[in-house]
TrEMBL record:
Short name of one Pfam family: SET
Keyword set, alphabetical order: Chromatin regulator, Chromosome, Metal-binding, Methyltransferase, S-adenosyl-L-methionine, Transferase, Zinc
GO MF terms held by the record: histone methyltransferase activity; zinc ion binding
Segment forming the signal sequence: none
Cellular localization per UniProt: Chromosome
Protein name: Histone-lysine N-methyltransferase SETMAR-like
Residues in SET domain copies: 125-249
Protein's gene: LOC109098612
Length: 302
């Protein structure tokens, strides 16, 4: 046993056997930390969401091949998403926008080993949930992850904007916010919003902390449904026992805006709502470019 292995010991599987690889929990983490948490492999339909994310609504390709090719597969009409090792190969168009990403789905004729099937296979890397010194629970890589490697989805309840607003206003100053607000710009003034809340129903992504200099990037991926799946990929090589982080403020793609709370309010709130505005929380990421505070976005409260 090397020195690193002696730092933390893991045993219980947070996913309860649902994932391909056990999501281990550090032995020192109290069981009460997960008492009100239900593990799911992918996002589920919540209040205010009119679409069942588990329903297969996108058409499939007719490629009767081992692995689809961009020139002939409609799922790859925006380019090859992954390389031969399943690593993200997302590129930007000449206008600076990121290409939409569609994986082959359950209706596609290609094989299950098709190169364009990655996020739908869920977690395939070794991850550990542990207690941090000053940021609650966190997630670390229990194996080396190369740049572009899919790590996990940020899964939870997909809810409507009114429900997101209600939940944020019901939080106390001591509560942590887990709601991700994804805004996708599809030309002109057209903006599609998706809200994901993993506070009671979610996966390992719920426990990944923020960093102002993260080692993960969040990319919306569509598989079976028009509802995007918020996939987290390594944006550089990640060493074993390194904590995994992503930027809650998002902004990594010029046509998407993925965030928790990352800007001051720009609208007018009622007197009752003003009293419920959470205070800025100190950021403890330790990055050289740390802003000093966790991202704050109150736009959903307008």
């Amino acid at each position: 046993m090397n020195k690193e292995d002696m730092i933390r010991t893991y045993s219980q599987d947070l996913s309860g056997g649902l994932e391909n690889v056990p999501v281990l929990i550090e032995n020192s983490v109290p069981k009460e930390a997960f008492s009100n948490f239900q593990y799911v492999l992918e996002s589920v339909q919540g209040p205010g969401c009119d679409i069942d994310p588990s329903a297969v609504t996108l058409p499939g390709c007719s490629c009767r091949v081992q692995s689809c090719l961009p020139d002939s597969c409609p799922c790859l009409r925006f380019g090859q998403t992954y390389d031969s090792k399943g690593r993200l190969n997302q590129q930007q168009e000449d206008d600076g926008f990121s290409r939409p990403v569609f994986e082959c789905n359950a209706l596609c004729a290609c094989s299950e080993s098709c190169q364009n099937r990655v996020v739908q296979k869920w977690v395939e890397v070794r991850l550990g949930v542990f207690s941090t010194k000053d940021r609650g629970l966190g997630v670390e890589a229990l194996e080396r992850l190369p740049c572009g490697r899919f790590v996990c989805e940020y899964a939870g309840e997909i809810i409507g904007s009114h429900e997101a607003r209600r939940r944020q206003l019901s939080q106390t100053p001591l509560d942590m916010n887990y709601i991700i607000a994804l805004q996708e710009h599809s030309g002109g003034d057209r903006v599609t919003q998706t809200f994901v809340d993993p506070v009671t129903i979610g996966n390992v992504g719920r426990f990944i902390n923020h960093s102002c200099k993260p080692n993960l990037v969040m990319v919306p991926i569509r598989v079976h449904s028009l509802l995007p799946r918020l996939a987290l990929f390594a944006n550089r090589d990640i060493e074993r026992y390194e904590e995994l982080t992503f930027d809650y403020a998002g902004g990594q793609n010029s046509n998407t805006d993925t965030r928790k709370w990352d800007k001051a309010p720009t609208g007018t709130l009622t007197g009752a709502d003003v009293d419920k505005i959470p205070l800025r929380k100190v950021c403890h990421c330790g990055a050289s470019n740390c802003t000093g505070f966790l991202p704050l976005d109150m736009s959903v409260l307008h």
